[in-house]
Amino acid sequence: MRAIMNFRALSIACGLCVALAVPSLTNTAFADTEDPVKPRGGYVLVDPPDPSTPSAKADISKIIFVNRCVGGCVVTPGENDARTNTSSIAAQTSNISEFMWDDQVFDDVIECLRDVYAPYDVQIVTEDPGMTMFHHEAILAGGPAELGLEPFVGGIAPLSCAGAINNVISYSFANTLGPNVSELCWTVAQESAHAFGLDHEDDCHDPMTYHPGCGIKYFRDESFNCGENGPRACTCGGNQQNSHRMLLSVFGAGVGAAPPTVDVLLPANDATVNDEFDIFGEAIDDRQMLYGHVDLVLNGTRWETRLGDETSGTNTYQFKAPATLPDGIIDVEIRACNGLESCASSTVTVTKGAPCTSADQCLQGQLCDAGKCYWEPPTGVLGDECGIRQECVSDLCPSVGGESFCSAPCFPGLSDQCEDGFDCLAAPGQGIPGDGICWPAADDGGGCCSVNNDNDVPFTQLALFGLVLFVAVRRRRRRA
Q: Which of 129, 290, 348, 374 has the maximum number of C-beta atoms within 10 A of its C-beta?
C-alpha cells in the first residue's frame, strides 16, 4: 500500500526529480521551483515489503541493471519484482518505449554511473540478470505518460522508511529528459538510490538534489539538509542525511573513487630555497576538491592543510614554509585527498641552509638523518594518550576535559562510525572532518572539545588556527 507524502515536499523535488504523491498533480504545485516545466523525478513512499517474500528474506542485491528497453518493456502492476517486471508504481500494464538516443549517449551514461557508484560494492550491468538472480532494475527509457503519470515527472521510484528495498524497479524517463549525459546519469543515480532509502537533498553537488549545476554529481560524505528548493525535515526522520554513508551501510565499500591528480609547481626539484619559501601545488579531481583537502607535508609530517577550493575556480593551492622549519634537506610533498579520502601526492626535494648533522639542530622530538630533520612515523592509535598530533597515526590528538587521546573523525548523529568502546563526540568548529571525534565511551566528555596545541611546536598552533577558522566559516556557508 502506498503512503501519500506531504504534498508540497513531494511536488517540488530534485533538479530532475519531483516526488510524486498522486498522479493528478499539476504544474501549479511547482510554481516556486526553478523551472516548473522541466521534467523532474521523485519517489513514492511505500510500506516495507512483506517479510515472508523471497526478496525481503534475501540479502540486498548488489546488481543494478540499467535497462534501455530494447523493443520496449512491459511492466505490470503488483509486488515489486525486477525479475518479472512487476512494479508497485504501475497502475496498469504499461509498455515503456525504447531508449531513443544513440548508443554513445547510453554508453556514456553507463560509464558515468559506474564512476558515481564506484565507492560502493555495486555492479552496474546492461544485460538482464534474469529470473535466477535478484537485482535492482533502473529503467532508462520511455516517458511518464506510458506509466500513466503527468508530463512533468522525469523519474520515479519507490522509497521505504524501513531502509533499502530489494529487487525493485526505478524509472528515469530518458526520452522526455533528452540526450544530456550528465542529467541522465544524475537522474538514474537518484532514482535508483531512492530504493536504497535515500531522500532528496538541498545541495547541488549530490545526485539526490533538485538543483542543476555544480558539475558531475556524486554521493558526498557530507551531512546535507533534506529538501528540494529549500531545507525541510527528512521524510523518514531527522533533518539531514549523508548519502555516502547510507549507501556504504547498504552495500559496503567498492573499488573506491579515483584519487586526484597532484603536482608541485614551485619550488623546483633540487632547488636551494630561503626561509619561509613559497610553495605552490596543483590538485585536480573529477569529484571536485571542495569537500576534500590539500596538505603540505614536509619530511613526512603534515604541517598545514587547505580545504578544497569551492569558489575561486582555480586548482592551485599556495603555502608558505613555516618560519620555524629547521634548515636542512627537505622533501616538499603536496598531498591531496578528495571528499572520500582517496589521496595522491607529488614530492620535490630542496635544500634550505645547510643539511643538519645532529638532532640538536632540529625541533624538539625530531631526529636528523641524511641531512633531514624529521619526526619518526607516528605509532599512536585510537585511544592512545598523546601530547601532539604527530604522535597519532590519524594525525588527530584532541583534548577533552584535560585529557588527550589519539582520535578519528566522525559525523555526530550517524551510528556505527567509531570502534567498539568509542562514541562520536561533537566537536564543531575544530577543523575536523565531520565535526566529530571518536572518544572513549566511558568518558562523558565534560566540556568542549579543542585540538591539542603543544607549545614545543608553535607552527602547529598557527596552522590549526587558520584551518579551524577556515572550516568554521566554510561549513556555515555550506549548511546555511
A: 374
